[in-house]
Amino acid sequence: MAETLIEIADIAKDYHRGKVAIPVLSEISLQIEKGDFLALMGPSGSGKTTLLNLIGGLDTPTSGSISIDGERIDKLTQGKLAAWRSRHVGFVFQFYNLLPVLTAEKNVELPLLLTNLNRKERKKRALAALAVVGLQDRASHRPTELSGGQEQRVAIARAIVSDPGLLVCDEPTGDLDRATADEILELLQLLNREYGKTIVMVTHDPKAADHANHCLYLDKGSLSGSQTA
Amino acid sequence: MSTLNQIFVITLMNLRNLPARKASSMVIVVGIAGVVTVLIAILSMAQGFEATLRGAGQADRAIVIRAGSDSEMGSSVPVDEARQIETMPGLARIDGNPLVAGETYVIADIKKRANNSDANMPMRGVEPESFKIRNEVEIVEGRNFQFGRFELIAGVKAANQFQGIDLGAQLQIRGAKWKVVGLFESGGSIHESEVWVDNAILVAELNRGWGYSSMIARLESPLDLEVFGNAMEDDPQLETKAVRESSYYNEQSTGITSLITNFGYWVAAIMAVGAIFGALNTMYSAVSTRSVEIATLRALGFSPIPVVISVLVESIMLALLGGSLGSAIAYTFFNGYTASTMGATFSQVSFDFAVTRELIVQGITWSCLLGLIGGLFPSVAAARQPITVALRGL
After folding, report:
1. Domain limits of chain A?
2. Do B173 and B83 belong to one domain?
3. What is the DSSP string of B179-220?
4. What is the mean pLDDT of residues A197-205?
5. Domain that holds residue B46
């Protein structure tokens, strides 16, 4: 039986507009196994990005608990949560979020600056991560010199460079054409299958969700269904 | 190491972004350059005025004035008291003769060269010993006046400032005509704003046979002021006091110097408020355009402190650039600029603006402070913005 990586128990998330609490997520409980590739789908405003942010430790729930690899991340202070993210989570964003002034290699190297690795080792690992995504020959290029698909590959290299167990991807193909999107999704599948990364991906795109092992549907802040590939 | 790396990366990112934000960054640079220019310019005026007055004062020289007077202008030393003072202990002597001279200080109406306006020109009647006591005085053009003649020598600043002070010209002062025979310098001191004549002729012209305005004396050593002063106090026939020359001119400069200095700080403070708003606006805008980048770094695990520090570093660096520019402008346009104002004796004092190293340090310090204030609030705002909100570019 597969080991559980993410255990979410009865979480709720409210946002506040003035004194008024606006519930975004309510009574969500789920478990995600280590090595799974899960897609989160649902209409806009259903709370899927909020759930992804909670899983990635970018936000904390209003109530309930989130354990990842046995660690209660909802209990961590902001500082400890930041340190936890740097060690355990890789992020892939819809618009890549690369720093335009840095080369591909330096962008990939960013998470390693939070480690004790020396410059030589950081460079070696950054180039290795770029090789995994097939962009070792673009190491010295800046984001503006790359295509959208290449930028997203660099972002994926940045997400995996410190070898986190979990990748959280927010609409990773939302800004790409179909063919490029498929390449990115195949790369994510490769990382899941060959490198054992657990992936949680938010998407609007059913074809993108087809690349995942499971799909969960959210509607109005609650889980409304699931599907296994 | 990790925190330093974080600071370095984010700061580098900010600085590399600067060319894309040239126009808004210039708001900080220009605003702060303006503040620093004005601050240094006004303070250099105070500094120059103070240096001019203090330059005239030496520790081993004493001015003797009436006991109740603050300046030569309102002082009188009767001739019989002056003869008594010449016998006092503590005075330096040459061949047994005391280095002390009676002087008469009056002001004369004259026109300024610059704008033809009326001005009060200080006129000093001196004795032969005056030149031995004030040995920094040096004739730089023409010659010294001859005692017993209606001749005058003028300080170079007086010559630049007042109409009619040209070598060989006849200057009409209070009904008498004086021939301008020489120009002198005195190490940039206040005396360069004066004209000097034979005291005996001046006193006769003014019908002031009853005495001098003051006496100037050279002491055997700075420590002998007490000996000289005490001897004067102990003599019941004397109603005079001895003041160390350096203290006298310090006192004369204090009022106007502090007036100019306070004015300088007020003007700079008012301008600084404007510059701070400019800096705040620029840095808020700078942080806002990079909010997604900052949020991305924080999502990757970078802590908020490097974000705060990097924004501050950028703001301070821009402010330093402004401060340096302001200092350079102030130095180029104001250092050595000659101006004149009314001194404590209601006479015109010419002085050179002095942009000193201390003033430049002060200007740079102000610029850093303004940069710090301008960067602090935007940096804290950037660090406190929720990551999930910032990632959406809101």
Report:
1. 35-63+87-228
2. yes
3. EEEEEEE-TT-GGGG-EEEEHHHHHHHHT-TTEESEEEEEBS
4. 95
5. 2-54+253-391
Q: Do A79 and B301 count as a contact with CB atoms less than 8 A apart?
A: no
* Model confidence, pTM: 0.67
B321 pLDDT higher than 70: yes
Phi, psi values for residue A134, rounded to 5°: 80, 25
CB contacts, 8 Å: B289 with chain A: none
| Angstrom distance (rounded) from CA A33 to CA A12 | 21
Is the torsion defined by CA of B369, B371, B374, B378 positive or negative?
negative
In this complex, which of B1, B298, B304 lies closest to A116 when CB atoms are compared?
B1
CATH architecture of A35-63+87-228: 3-Layer(aba) Sandwich (3.40)
**A174-189 pLDDT, tens digit each:** 989 999 999 999 999 9
Q: What is the pLDDT of residues A25-40, one digit of tens each?
A: 998 999 999 999 999 9
- B112 found inside a domain: yes
Asked whether residue B336 is domain-assigned, the answer is yes
Partner A, chain B 278-297, Cβ-Cβ below 8 Å: 292-293, 296-297
Closest approach of A140 to chain B, Cα-based (Å): 16
Rounded to a whole number, what is the distance in Å from the CA of A120 to chain B's nearest CA?
A: 15
Query: Could you report the predicted ipTM of this complex, rounded to two decimals?
Result: 0.93
Last residue of a domain, one of B210, B238, B266: B238
